[in-house]
Amino acid sequence: MYYIRIAITLMALTFAVSASMGQKDRLMIQKVIEEGYVQGLHNKGDLQKTAASFHPGFNLLGVRNNMLTKFPIYSWLESSKQRREKSEDKRTSRTIAKYPMIDITGNAAIAKVELYKDDKKIFTDYLSLYRFNEGWRIVSKIYHDHR
């Protein structure tokens, strides 16, 4: 009976530690997405934080004319920087993100992110992330445009 109690206690502790680590990873992932992607690219935030949030091999994948398109992070950052320098980016309302799903398995994660502007859903994004030595980094994105 004594050994059964010890086994149950150890299992409960393992579950509690695992759940705590999972919550910590979720918060870290949400922070990477919020600071680097939402604030950095959608709300004209710090592009250095944005670059640090994305893996250099990142690609934004889309479908145009029934063909798969790829837009690497270095091109996305450069076009964002140029729009800001030319003052072509006239956005005044802020983009707000909701995170209905973040699923983590080991060092891999997927996040469903809903983006809203003026209380209207504009995008649903699916971001893939990996945990590297430096932390969680966004490695790819697919999306649906609601506009």
From TrEMBL:
Q: Which residues form the signal peptide?
A: 1-19
UniProt superkingdom: Bacteria
Keyword Transcription annotated = no
Q: Which residue spans adopt a coiled-coil conformation according to this UniProt entry?
A: none
Keyword list (alphabetical) reads: Signal
A Pfam family of the record is Lumazine_bd_2
- InterPro entries with a match to the protein in the record: FrzH/put_lumazine-bd, NTF2-like_dom_sf
Q: What is this protein called?
A: Lumazine-binding protein
